[in-house]
């Protein structure tokens, strides 16, 4: 119906624009809409439809906005209301029309009510946080939005959180992708039945309006698109168009969110072909429509696509499904496109045009059909929309709209087909794109939604030839970057490979297409079609062969390569992604017997492709020298399918193997790689740069090994099991270039290898043989056994974290294969082989992770060196595994020495591979083993213990796998007659072991020692000698380079090589000899070689026994064990032999040999009886002696070295403990500075720079290395015990009103409001925030030395972590961070001792003295070096903190400010030390905070400066404390603000002022005097505060009881008397009046008992006593006593001299007994109270507040964090920034105060400071501790530097998850958090954390 209406509208006459008057636009939209809706609801709605069309035509006219696009500035200037106005209007109209006259919001709600969708389908873009649950997922790509995840039940599942890279959509409710058990609550209900039917008229208007709207959008897109000019990319223009279309697309997106009802209307509109045809054909009279149609055609053409109507060629449009014969369809016609194809892709060919063209033509004839690449026909809006989406390079908005529609099933199918139809076009656009990364992500964002669904994938495969399209498109894509292969035969090679340097490979541009292909192959139904389709397989092998032999390396022989290309990684990635992963995908469907056919197909086409490849590179039999490629995907496909066939499909291996000749070819290249690995590790490729090492490592690295080295080794094992063993062994030694080394002669010439590389190449060859023969990965191990072996190998190298194990164990790369890491089997194997070590915290601050370490029985039975060697990327890991093994054996007492790698029993071989063991029983190998044993025994050069170890390993493997027990009788005769043709009689190792070899003729250089020797003198030996020479020419040459000769015979390949190898006539050898050398150096028979005959007379057994003697260093050391204990032969598995060194290995082998045959047993016994000394007696013994001496000397040297190292280590340790005790100061050693020894006259300091010792003097002062830092830790103390928690909901908030800093601020400002400023600044301390903390490492240096040290640092601008210009440096001795030097005051210890002696003066005299001393103005000492330094350090101290933390005065820059600042520095340091001691002094001197303290020196500096400010004598508080003033007319100075009453003064501040005003050094009795006086004031304050806290009745009661006591003798020392007096004095003022409502808050409801009052008074006074005791401890070096908490008060007061010494402790202690009044108590109290009364006359409220001082602060804490990190993450990662209201990219939260900040956020930047830096200054005076929400790590900002501290949240395996990459649930680690808090409180961030960097205010 809508279609008919639309047709009428298009076809019918258009109403001319002018007829509708302009005001018509402004008609009431709602009325019009209602009218139209009514008209359309009639049964005959033609008229209504036409009217609507006309209206839409006018409203949605495409002409106006595009003028705006073309030139928006002019349009705006012309007053068209800018480009946006018309669109706005149009959208308004659309909304009104859709709603049919109602409100649009109500309409939306109405439609939503009919939403039947049971799917979530929420679409997200990159960086969105989503979840993936492997337990619930069917497809590996399944993902859930956070809401659905948290609403579902996933407890105990294997899930993780992840940041979406490409974007995605929520799969909740889609049972094709995930199991229903995982659906969330909203999507569990299958709701289709319950939703009522949609009323017809609700969406009627939508059906009419939307087609026009979408057509209008398409017209915009057509108009806006301009072909990019050849040189200028036109992204700018495209983006402009897209910006303009933003509102329209958003409107569509909103429609899709209305739910299922609206989506189905949209689906109808988008897929209706009639609508599309009518509207877009461009046939109407409308010029505008015509124009847009033309633009569309141009765009198609320029994309290299044809619009089918243009040509009459194709009968191809819908090829009959399933016919896959190559290129049958319509090639007659396809030639037309061929020409066009070449021209359109000219720009892709990049210079290699000729080749590209030739290649193209080849491709065109072999692809399925051209239509895949070149034809596009659009039949619906959806198809053209997708076309433009691709053309505009996938704008995010469009992608989201197209994906939002997916919950509609009908749409999903249509869209998938459309996507497939455009696949080739997508590839072309992607290749040209400049933003290929973004585009790739968007493509995958779409395709993963379509292809993860198996049902859909199958449907599209059947109906749209999806597989053909994908393979063709991939092939075509790689075509553009092919180059000629240089492997093997450079000139004539016909093979082409991809060029890894091309952008396509370097930037992984192919990734989206390959990932789609892998995705669809994971569906069984699709993969089966692929494996059945021969044509596809051929094409695919063709594609894989492009990668065969890519990135060829040629060994540089002369100079170092100039430019190291890094393309190798692109090559590895390409092979893994484009070849290996599809292969694993296919393999996962070949698991059962029924799938044999598939394997046969793949193997067949693989072999064909390999044969083609060998032909193309002209390969005959010798690989070209000095080149290697690591990329042989065809070999690997073949190998892996073979393995699968035998393992799972029960195929007969021989039925899928090629002939011998092909096998010989197949083994060459993989073997070449193994030899090259050995060459690379022997540094033979060093001139190729580091990248070649990188390749060798990548080849074995965990993500690549099971697609690279494993298949290669398996293929070699298959070849070895089927080829002649002698041929194979000789090939190996020739490939490894060590043939010439295998001679009995002591000297030889190697024509192909330098001497320095021989040893490691020989080791390489033997190790390779051991791996080849003992690895069972594909030869019979089950998946679980493989997993276990891999895991054991990794754990043996190092302890591993759980995540690194997951990463290191090669998983089967295809996700559906079943061995998913983290799966059940992984965890169960892990718990079987390893123990978990929980994370530990070292005091040094280095954070450990939770680790897994192998169990003891694993070391004992399962440690497999072979597997370790195979899997190590770095050679050092093998050593590490052996070291750990050694340590285990020592620890468990199994073996004390240096063990050899243990021999491990192997899993039994699968019957198909039994042939592999023939390698161990071939004469060639036996000759090699014999020769090597002989050479080792004779101490020839170039042989190492490793060689011997491998030789013994091979012998043992042979004994373990001997074919069948030989009959002893048959081999009883063993005379020389038997062995005409060769060294050994048979091929069985067991019998060959006992065969004696007498003479050997060797070719040696003339200089060799063998030449000088005469032939044996006696005739018999002569005859034997001649017999040898006549009889065994072959042997001798075989010995010299025999293996090479055997190998060279292969040249005559046409004769069957079996016969040739067995032929023994020397002529054959001679004839063929020259042929080998054509590739290598000159033939071996160079003139300087001569022939010598060696007398050997040894067998393998006798060599082994002599070796035993040699290794043990004793003659006759071997004694057959079975002679003592015959049992040994019956139960051979003796634990004694399982671990040990070479001697053990030899014994084990001899025992096995004896077990296998009685003959061997007999011969061993005989040899042991004879025990001949080794062959040339003198020489060897000398040599042996030499080696023994050498060994002994080595041993001794080793022991000496160990001893030295141990000594050094212990020294270092003790130094570390004394010097750097950052966190373990228990072992505290008093500094030299302390004044402990009276006999020394002056303190002596060591300078750590020049090393001289001496006193500090005026002209050459010494200083302490100190670090000054501003600190707000004190300000963070709170008065409640419970630490605050971090807010994680909107309701929770943290208010800073109850912090210590806030309370002190309030107090100061209150005082400043009512009292004289200068007096206020003496009544309090500052420095709670931004106070300067001084700490030292305790080392001293001369100040002039320090200056030169700083100069040298300044010149040596290596990248230090600190800034020398700011005065920062590290202590030259202990490397602790520092930034200033505190001068040591020259003073003699004796003096200070005198000062300490108590004098007998009475208190009054002392008080006078104190006053006089304070009155002397302190003249600043003369200009000495010392005084200069004192000044400069004072400057440093001032500059350490910010101005706002120093200036509290109302008059800026007043001296009172400096005065206040200086004594507050002392206060800050004392208070902080108290906090470090845990807030009290109970632990006494031996406390953790008794660290190196510099308070003594600091006091000198401060005192020196304080004495420059003399306090006016009448203002000196000392007067008020110690003298009664005569009552003068104080009321006269009303106009001036009064002084602060003495009871409002902070007593501790007064103490510091008094002491710092005295000349230093201070006398002890003066100190005690000051303390006593101040205590009286403090006590009175306590009483006053207590009186305010009591209620009225209590007060009057006390007043009366105390009054009685006033006249008793001890009234001055009884708190009752004093309290009553204070109450009566204060009652005179208004202090207790107006106890109104809010007063109740202060009154405690409990009645005060005498005990509670006593406790209150003590608690009030304790902080002062603690600080004073600390001060006394530092000034006079007196020890602090330790005590219980309840007796702290009494102990401290007696220590301070407040308690009279005769004080008895029998009755309960009362605080008042410490009082010692300088003047009559009641008089002075009354004087003090009168000051308060005069103040409370006016301000009773404030007066009361000021009296009650909160002195009991709790220790500072960081905020408490929730148990689970997700709680923090979910709240903060979406929280918006308060400044810009956007969600910050890097949100962070301050752990001190809970403020939410943006890290690096530009929105919150103020004067070039980013928010975190700014906050660290405001909150912590330069120290900030932030938790980065998106990374779970903590970052520390300290001044201008920052460092990553680590994480306090760990997963279940005790690991951090930085950046939340793994996304596993994280839990708080309390210990780590404690460590962090400790470092914050103790200000040791700078010392403990090592990696600091400057932040340049950018955090």
Give a quick summary of the entry:
The protein is of the alpha+beta class and 1899 residues long. Helix content is 50%, strand content 6%.
Question: Any key phrases for this structure?
Answer:
1899 residues, alpha+beta, six-stranded antiparallel beta sheet, three-stranded antiparallel beta sheet, 75 helices, disordered N terminus
Q: Which class do the helix and strand fractions yield?
A: alpha+beta
Unreliable residue stretches: 1-26, 62-83, 309-368, 814-822, 965-981, 1012-1087, 1173-1184, 1219-1240, 1388-1395, 1528-1534, 1636-1644
The total count of helices amounts to 75
Quote the beta fraction: 5-15%
Mean pLDDT: 78
Rg (CA only): 46 Å
Query: What sort of overall outline do the alpha carbons produce when their principal axes are compared?
Result: flat
Number of strands: 28
Strand order of the largest sheet: 22-21-23-24-25-28
The helix content is: 40-55%
Give a short account of the largest sheet: 6 strands, antiparallel
Ends apart, CA distance between termini: 62 Å
């Amino acid at each position: 119906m809508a279609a008919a209406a639309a047709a009428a509208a298009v076809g019918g006459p258009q109403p001319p624009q002018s007829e509708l008057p302009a005001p018509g636009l402004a008609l009431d939209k709602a009325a019009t809409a209602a009218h139209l809706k009514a008209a359309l609801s009639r049964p005959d709605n033609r008229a209504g439809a036409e009217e609507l069309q006309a209206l839409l035509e006018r409203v949605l006219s495409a002409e106006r906005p595009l003028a705006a696009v073309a030139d928006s500035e002019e349009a705006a200037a012309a007053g068209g209301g800018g480009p946006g106005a018309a669109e706005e209007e149009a959208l308004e109209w659309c909304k009104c029309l859709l709603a049919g006259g109602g409100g649009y919001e109500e309409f939306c709600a109405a439609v939503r009510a009919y939403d039947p969708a049971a799917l979530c389908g929420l679409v997200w873009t990159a960086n969105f946080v989503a979840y993936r649950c492997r337990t619930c997922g069917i497809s590996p790509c399944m993902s859930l939005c956070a809401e659905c995840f948290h609403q579902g039940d996933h407890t105990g599942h294997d899930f993780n959180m992840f940041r979406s890279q490409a974007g995605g959509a929520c799969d909740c409710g889609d049972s094709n992708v995930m199991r229903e058990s995982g659906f969330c609550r909203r999507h569990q209900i299958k709701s289709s039945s319950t939703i009522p039917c949609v009323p017809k008229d609700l969406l009627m208007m939508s059906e009419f309006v939307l087609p026009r709207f979408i057509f209008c959008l398409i017209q915009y897109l057509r108009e806006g698109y301009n072909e990019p000019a050849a040189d200028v990319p036109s992204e700018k223009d495209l983006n402009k168009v897209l910006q303009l279309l933003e509102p329209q697309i958003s409107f569509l997106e909103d429609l899709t969110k209305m739910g299922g009802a609206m989506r189905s209307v949209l689906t109808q509109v988008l897929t209706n072909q009639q609508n599309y045809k009518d509207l877009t054909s461009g046939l109407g009279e409308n010029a505008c429509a015509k124009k847009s149609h033309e633009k569309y055609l141009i765009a198609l053409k320029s994309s290299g696509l044809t619009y089918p109507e243009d040509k009459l060629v194709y009968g191809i449009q819908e090829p009959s499904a399933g016919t896959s014969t190559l290129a049958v369809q319509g090639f007659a016609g396809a030639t037309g496109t061929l020409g066009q194809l070449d021209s359109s892709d000219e720009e892709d060919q990049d210079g290699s045009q000729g080749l590209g063209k030739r290649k193209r033509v080849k491709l065109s004839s072999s692809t399925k059909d051209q239509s895949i690449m070149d034809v596009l026909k659009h039949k619906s809006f959806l198809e053209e929309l997708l076309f433009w989406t691709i053309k505009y390079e996938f704008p995010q908005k469009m992608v989201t709209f197209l994906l939002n529609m997916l919950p509609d099933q009908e749409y999903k199918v249509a869209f998938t087909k459309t996507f497939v139809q455009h696949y080739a076009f997508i590839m072309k656009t992607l290749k040209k794109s400049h933003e290929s990364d973004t585009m790739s992500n968007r493509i995958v964002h779409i395709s993963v939604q379509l292809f993860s669904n198996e049902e859909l994938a199958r449907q599209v495969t059947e109906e749209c030839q999806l597989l053909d399209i994908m393979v063709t498109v991939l092939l075509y894509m790689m075509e553009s970057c092919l180059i000629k292969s240089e492997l093997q035969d450079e000139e004539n090679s016909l093979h082409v490979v991809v060029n890894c340097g091309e952008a396509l490979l370097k930037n992984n541009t192919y990734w989206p297409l390959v990932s789609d292909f892998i995705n669809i192959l994971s569906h069984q139904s699709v993969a089966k079609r692929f494996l059945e389709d021969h044509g596809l397989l051929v094409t695919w092998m063709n594609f894989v062969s492009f990668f065969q032999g890519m990135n060829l390396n040629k060994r540089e022989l002369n100079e170092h390569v100039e430019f190291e290309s890094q393309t190798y990684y692109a090559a590895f990635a390409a092979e893994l992604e484009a070849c290996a992963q599809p292969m694993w995908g296919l393999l996962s469907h070949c698991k059962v017997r029924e799938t044999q056919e598939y394997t046969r197909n793949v193997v067949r086409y693989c072999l064909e492709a390999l044969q083609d490849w060998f032909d193309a590179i002209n390969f005959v039999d010798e690989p070209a020298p000095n080149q290697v490629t690591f990329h042989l995907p065809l070999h690997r496909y073949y190998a892996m399918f073979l393995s699968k066939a035998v393992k799972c499909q029960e195929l007969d291996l021989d039925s899928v193997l090629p002939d011998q000749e092909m096998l010989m070819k197949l083994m060459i290249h993989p073997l070449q790689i193994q030899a090259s690995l050995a060459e690379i590790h022997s540094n033979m490729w060093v001139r190729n740069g580091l990248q070649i090492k990188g390749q060798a490592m990548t080849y074995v690295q965990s993500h690549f090994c099971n697609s690279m080295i494993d298949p290669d080794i398996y293929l070699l094992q298959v070849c070895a099991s089927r080829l002649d063993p002698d041929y194979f062994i000789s090939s190996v030694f020739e490939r490894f270039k060590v043939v010439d080394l295998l001679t009995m002669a002591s000297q030889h010439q190697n024509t192909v290898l330098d001497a320095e590389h021989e040893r490691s190449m020989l080791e390489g060859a033997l190790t390779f043989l051991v791996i080849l023969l003992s690895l069972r990965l594909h030869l019979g191990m089950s998946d679980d056994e493989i997993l276990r072996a891999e895991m054991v190998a990794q754990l043996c190298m190092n302890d591993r974290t759980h995540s690194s194990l997951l990463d290191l164990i090669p998983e089967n790369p295809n996700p559906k294969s079943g061995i998913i890491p983290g799966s059940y089997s992984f965890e169960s194997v892990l718990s079987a082989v390893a123990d978990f070590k929980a994370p530990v915290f070292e005091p040094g601050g280095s954070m450990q992770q939770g680790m897994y370490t192998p169990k003891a029985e694993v070391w004992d039975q399962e440690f497999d060196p072979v597997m370790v060697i195979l899997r190590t990327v770095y050679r050092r890991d093998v050593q590490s595994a052996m070291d750990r093994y050694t340590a285990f054996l020592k620890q468990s007492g199994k073996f004390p020495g240096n063990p050899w790698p243990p021999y491990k029993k192997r899993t039994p071989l699968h019957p198909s591979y039994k042939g592999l063991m023939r390698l161990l029983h071939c004469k060639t190998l036996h000759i090699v083993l014999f020769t090597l044993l002989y050479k080792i025994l004779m101490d020839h050069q170039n042989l190492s213990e490793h060689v011997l170890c491998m030789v013994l390993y091979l012998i043992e493997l042979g004994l373990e796998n001997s074919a069948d027990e030989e009959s002893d009788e048959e081999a009883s005769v063993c005379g020389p007659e038997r062995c005409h043709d060769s060294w050994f009689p048979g091929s069985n190792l067991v019998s060959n072991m006992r065969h004696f070899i007498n003479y050997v003729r060797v070719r040696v250089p003339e200089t060799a020692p063998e030449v000088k020797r005469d032939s044996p003198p006696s005739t018999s030996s002569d005859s034997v000698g001649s017999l040898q020479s006549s009889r065994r020419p072959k042997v001798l040459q075989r010995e010299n380079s025999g293996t090479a000769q055997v190998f060279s015979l292969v040249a005559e390949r046409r004769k069957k090589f079996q016969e040739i190898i067995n032929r023994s006539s020397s002529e054959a050898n001679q004839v063929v000899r020259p042929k080998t050398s054509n590739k290598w150096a000159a033939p071996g028979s160079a003139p300087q070689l001569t022939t010598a005959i060696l007398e050997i007379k040894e067998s393998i057994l006798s060599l082994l026994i002599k070796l035993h003697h040699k290794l043990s260093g004793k003659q006759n050391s071997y004694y057959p064990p079975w002679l003592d204990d015959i049992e040994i032969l019956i139960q051979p598995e003796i634990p004694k032999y399982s671990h040990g060194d070479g001697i053990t290995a030899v014994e084990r082998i001899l025992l096995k040999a004896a077990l296998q045959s009685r003959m061997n047993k007999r011969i061993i016994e005989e040899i042991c009886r004879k025990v001949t000394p080794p062959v040339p007696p003198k020489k060897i013994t000398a040599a042996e002696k030499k080696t023994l001496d050498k060994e002994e000397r080595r041993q001794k040297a080793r022991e000496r070295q160990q001893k030295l190292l141990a000594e050094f280590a212990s020294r270092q340790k003790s130094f570390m403990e004394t010097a750097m005790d950052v966190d373990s100061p228990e072992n505290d050693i008093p500094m030299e500075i302390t004044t402990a020894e009276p006999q020394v006259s002056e303190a002596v300091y060591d300078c750590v720079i020049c090393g001289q010792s001496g006193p500090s003097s005026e002209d050459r002062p010494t200083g302490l290395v100190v670090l000054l830092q501003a600190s707000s830790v004190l300000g963070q103390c709170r008065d409640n015990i419970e630490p605050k928690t971090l807010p994680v909901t909107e309701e929770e908030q943290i208010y800073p009103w109850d912090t210590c800093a806030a309370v002190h601020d309030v107090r100061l400002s209150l005082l400043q409001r009512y009292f004289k400023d200068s007096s206020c600044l003496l009544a309090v301390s500052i420095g709670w925030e931004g106070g300067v903390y001084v700490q030292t490492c305790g080392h001293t240096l001369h100040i002039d030395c320090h200056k030169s040290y700083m100069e040298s640092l300044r010149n040596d601008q290596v990248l230090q972590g600190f800034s020398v210009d700011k005065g920062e440096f590290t202590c030259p001795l202990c490397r602790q961070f520092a930034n200033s030097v505190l001068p040591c005051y020259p003073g003699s210890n004796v003096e200070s001792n005198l000062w300490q002696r108590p004098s007998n003066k009475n208190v009054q005299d002392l008080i006078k003295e104190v006053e006089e001393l304070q009155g002397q103005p302190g003249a600043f000492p003369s200009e000495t070096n010392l005084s200069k330094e004192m000044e400069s350090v004072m400057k440093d101290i001032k500059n350490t903190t910010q101005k706002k933390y120093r200036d509290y005065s109302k008059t800026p820059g007043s001296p009172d400010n400096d005065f206040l600042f200086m004594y507050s520095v002392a206060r800050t340091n004392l208070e902080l030390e108290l906090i470090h001691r845990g807030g009290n002094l109970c632990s006494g001197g031996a406390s953790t905070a008794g660290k190196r303290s510099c308070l003594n020196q600091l006091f000198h500096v401060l005192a020196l400066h304080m004495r420059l400010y003399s306090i006016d004598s009448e203002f000196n508080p000392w007067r008020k404390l110690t003298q009664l003033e005569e009552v003068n007319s104080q009321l006269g100075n009303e106009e001036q603000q009064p002084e602060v009453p003495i009871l409002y003064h902070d007593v501790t501040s007064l103490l510091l002022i008094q002491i710092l005003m005295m000349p230093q050094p201070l006398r002890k009795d003066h100190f005690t005097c000051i303390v006593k006086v101040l205590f009286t004031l403090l006590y009175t304050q306590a009483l006053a505060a207590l009186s305010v806290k009591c209620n009225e009745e209590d007060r009057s009661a006390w007043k009366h009881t105390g009054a009685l006591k006033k006249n008793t003798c001890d009234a001055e020392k009884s708190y009752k008397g004093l309290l009553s007096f204070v109450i009566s004095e204060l009652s005179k003022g208004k202090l207790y009046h107006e106890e109104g409502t809010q007063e109740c808050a202060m009154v405690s409801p409990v009645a005060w008992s005498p005990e509670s009052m006593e406790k209150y008074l003590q608690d009030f006074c304790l902080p002062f006593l603690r600080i004073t005791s600390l001060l006394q401890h530092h000034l006079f070096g007196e020890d602090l006593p330790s005590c219980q908490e309840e007796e702290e008060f009494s102990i401290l007061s007696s220590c301070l001299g407040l308690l009279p010494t005769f004080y008895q402790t029998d009755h309960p202690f009362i605080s008042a007994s410490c009082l010692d009044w300088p003047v009559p108590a009641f008089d002075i109290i009354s004087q003090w109270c009168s000051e308060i009364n005069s103040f409370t006359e006016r301000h009773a409220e404030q007066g009361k507040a000021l009296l009650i001082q909160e002195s009991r602060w709790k220790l500072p804490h960081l905020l408490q964090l929730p148990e689970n990190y997700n709680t923090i993450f979910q709240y903060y990662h979406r929280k918006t920034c308060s400044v810009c209201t956007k969600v910050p990219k890097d949100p962070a939260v301050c752990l001190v105060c809970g403020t939410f900040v943006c890290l690096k956020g530009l929105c919150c930047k103020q004067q070039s400071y980013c928010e975190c830096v700014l906050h660290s200054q405001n909150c912590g005076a330069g120290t900030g501790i932030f938790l980065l929400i998106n990374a779970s790590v903590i970052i520390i900002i300290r001044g201008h530097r920052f460092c990553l501290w680590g994480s306090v949240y760990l997963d279940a395996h005790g690991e951090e998850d930085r950046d939340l990459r793994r996304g596993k649930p994280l839990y708080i680690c309390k210990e780590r958090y404690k460590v962090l808090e400790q470092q914050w409180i103790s200000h040791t961030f700078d010392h403990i954390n090592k990696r600091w960097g400057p932040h340049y205010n950018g955090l």
